[in-house]
Amino acid sequence: MRRSMLGRLAVAACSLSLLTAFAPAAADGADSGAGRSYKKVGYFTQWGVYGRDFQVQDLEANGSAGKLTHINYAFGNVSAEGTCFTGNVPGEADAWADYARPLDAADSVDGVADTWDQPLAGNFNQLKELKAKHPGLKVLISLGGWSWSTHFSDAALTPASRKAFVASCIDLYIKGNLPQDGTRGGAGAAAGVFDGIDLDWEWPGSAGDTDTTYRPEDKRNFTELVKEFRTQLDAYARTQKRGTKYELTAFVPTAPAKIDAGFDVRRIMRDLDFVNLQGYDFHVSGEPRTAQQSALYARGDFSVHGTVEAWKRRGAPAHKLVMGMPFYGQGWTGVTGGGDGLGQPAAGPAPATWAAGYEDYKALKKLAGSGAYQIHRDRRGGHAWLFDGTTLWTYDDPQVLRAKTGYVREHGLGGAMFWSLDADTADGELVTAVDRGLRGR
């Protein structure tokens, strides 16, 4: 995945609910969540500005910015020394994209080209301009991800390492003290860009990417790390203007084994503003059989409902659970066995634009409209897939998202999160579907 956020999952079971997942959303005021302010959290990928040519300005142009409450910037890295850092290090950091790259007027949120001597350019400056147009919008730096969680365990290992790690992240991202890069960067250059920190450690206490360290004591250390972030963020907030608060969130797994290995749920939920639940990659294209990747309900398999219940059983309050939704699909080719293609043997991941077996929604929408693929739906399970007799893609479209936002409202959850904004259509179709669904429309 896209500096893939997620790994393969352990086996778990969850119960099937017979709720009508694809029933129309209730009218305004008809459900217990009427009047609530739901979180709508979209991940903006650092590297999406290159091949995909998805700029921060596109969120303004397609209307998505006004429908979001949070943007999580993916990702910030953790060094071998246990600190937050940036720079121009291939595969490890991209200061050029973050704050050095100049944008012309057409790609700038404010319609003004960057100058050669301004200290802040790149994505960070564009996010700051976007916030100026949308004062209620929060931007968080997301630390880690699948590929960049390598040194999290080391950084969280001792009280001293945790204190130093947190201080470095606050210095870099909250205080905005960027490394000097020509005329870019310097003390306070990025001050005001970020409103908090999102912890995307994949995974404390259990296996993640091949080079990611994990230890049995990660569960305790993650709890203490969250507490240290909360303490230092609150302390810095008190030095700022009255009413300043920095948010602290985390991306968390679906598998009960991973939850139990790495998360003291009751304790971390005291310090976190909310958590973004893994609501996708329940099955991935590297597996030998086709399967759902993001079903709302699934008997004896991973599902969104099963994830929500797993976190609630361990003490997480519903209003702090934000449901993850995919703006991409998992795909297989060489599918045999006939029928609708689901649950059948496959030769391997399907060819795709950026990575085999992984395709953006905007490309899958074109496949769905090509006439070559048939759209299949499991209406009780709340998921959809495309199949042309040989190739299968499992994905979420607006109809699926309407069912999921209905679930959010019905179950009193905190809102919706989606990976990732650059995979949506040019007119922001999926963000609009989530926004309308959470409004009960």
What does this structure look like?
This protein is α/β, with parallel strands linked by helices and 441 residues long. It has a single domain, classed as Glycosidases (TIM Barrel, Alpha-Beta Barrel). It contains 12 helices and 19 strands. It has helices at 56-61, 95-100, 122-133, 152-155, 159-174, 218-237, 256-262, 265-271, 304-313, 361-368, 398-410, 429-438; strands spanning 39-45, 70-78, 84-85, 88-89, 93-94, 138-144, 178-181, 184-186, 196-200, 247-252, 274-277, 321-326, 328-333, 348-349, 358-360, 374-378, 383-387, 392-395, 415-419. Strand 16 and strand 17 form a beta hairpin. Helix 5 (159-174) crosses helix 6 (218-237) and helix 11 (398-410) runs parallel beside helix 12. The longest helix has 20 residues, at 218-237. The two termini are 32 Å apart. Its EC number is 3.2.1.14.
Q: What's the mean pLDDT score?
A: 93
Annotated CATH homologous superfamily: Glycosidases
The largest pleated sheet is described as: 8 strands, parallel, barrel
Gross morphology is: globular
**Head-to-tail CA distance between termini:** 32 Å
Secondary structural class:
alpha/beta
Family: Belongs to the glycosyl hydrolase 18 family.
Protein name: chitinase
Organism: Streptomyces yangpuensis
GO molecular function: hydrolase activity
Strand-helix topology:
Blueprint: E1 39-45, H1 56-61, E2 70-78, E3 84-85, E4 88-89, E5 93-94, H2 95-100, H3 122-133, E6 138-144, H4 152-155, H5 159-174, E7 178-181, E8 184-186, E9 196-200, H6 218-237, E10 247-252, H7 256-262, H8 265-271, E11 274-277, H9 304-313, E12 321-326, E13 328-333, E14 348-349, E15 358-360, H10 361-368, E16 374-378, E17 383-387, E18 392-395, H11 398-410, E19 415-419, H12 429-438
Helix pairs in contact: 5-6, 11-12
Signal peptide: 1-26
GO molecular function: hydrolase activity
EC number: 3.2.1.14
